[in-house]
Design a protein that fits this description.
It is built from 3 helices and 11 strands. By secondary structure, the chain is of the alpha+beta class. A 4-stranded antiparallel sheet has the order 2-3-7-11. The protein has a 3-stranded mixed sheet with strand order 1-4-6, with no helix packed on it. The chain has a two-stranded antiparallel ribbon with strand order 5-9. It is rod-shaped, with a radius of gyration of 62 Å. Keywords: Signal.
């Protein structure tokens, strides 16, 4: 091989090496530029403020919701307490009112089971008999209307003085007495069909059940067709007015 050929080959190899180095340098330059472009397109600084803003917004929203929840929970609690307090007071007042209405004494009719009766001949007015009924029970009782009396074997009961009717029913507390008067005969002797009666039955009123049997004087009492009775009265004086 000639010396020229050898030198030519060496120059060619050198040129190839230079070309390779140049290409490598170019590729490395593009690599740097590519990395620079990639770093430029990444927007980390801009995403960070966005994330912080979102966190602040979420924190504010959560705080508002918590405050709203706390407020909504406290209001029904206060309202409920007020309602319960008011309702309790109303129930208490209603109970007191109901108790005050029902606290009065129980009243029933006077009967032979809770009362006793006496018959007394009085000196004034003449020819009068006083009937006294006394409450022997533990509760108030009423004597209604007028007594139905039967002397001896009489088949009918005497009429009542209508003018003697009281304005209210006579109510007897335990131990109290009510009164009725009986006109036995005409004071001037104008009556007819008179007779002497030695026994007496008294019904508290015409609708009563069992009869009282008060004692009469041993000699009996004189009765004629003038006989009449009064309504039951609260006082003895009222019973002897007729």
């Amino acid at each position: 091989m000639s010396a020229r050929t050898t030198r030519t080959r060496v120059l060619a190899a050198a040129a190839l090496a230079v070309a390779t180095l140049t290409l490598t340098a170019c590729n490395n330059g593009e690599g740097v530029r590519d990395e620079g472009a990639s770093a430029g397109t990444t927007s980390k600084p801009s995403s960070t403020p966005t994330s912080e803003s979102q966190k602040n917004k979420e924190t504010t929203t959560d705080a508002g919701q918590a405050a709203s929840s706390s407020g909504s929970n406290s209001k029904p609690k206060d309202g409920k307490g007020a309602q319960n307090s008011s309702g309790s007071k109303g129930s208490s007042d209603s109970s007191k009112s109901s108790g005050s209405q029902d606290s009065g004494p129980t009243r029933t009719s006077c009967t032979t089971a809770n009362s006793r009766m006496t018959a007394t001949v009085v000196s004034r007015p003449l020819n009068h008999l006083l009937l006294t009924v006394t409450n022997t029970g533990s509760k108030n009782c009423n004597v209604i209307g007028y007594p139905a009396v039967r002397f001896g074997e009489a088949q009918s009961v005497p009429p009542v003085f209508e003018d003697s009717k009281p304005q209210a029913v006579v109510t007897l507390a335990p131990g109290e007495s009510g009164y009725a008067g009986v006109l036995l005969s005409a004071a001037d002797g104008s009556g007819s069909n008179g007779y002497t009666a030695k026994s007496l039955q008294v019904y508290l009123n015409k609708d009563a059940g069992a009869a009282f049997k008060p004692s009469l004087p041993a000699k009996g009492v004189y009765v004629d067709d003038s006989i009449s009775v009064t309504y039951w009265q609260q006082t003895m004086a009222d019973a002897l007015t007729w």
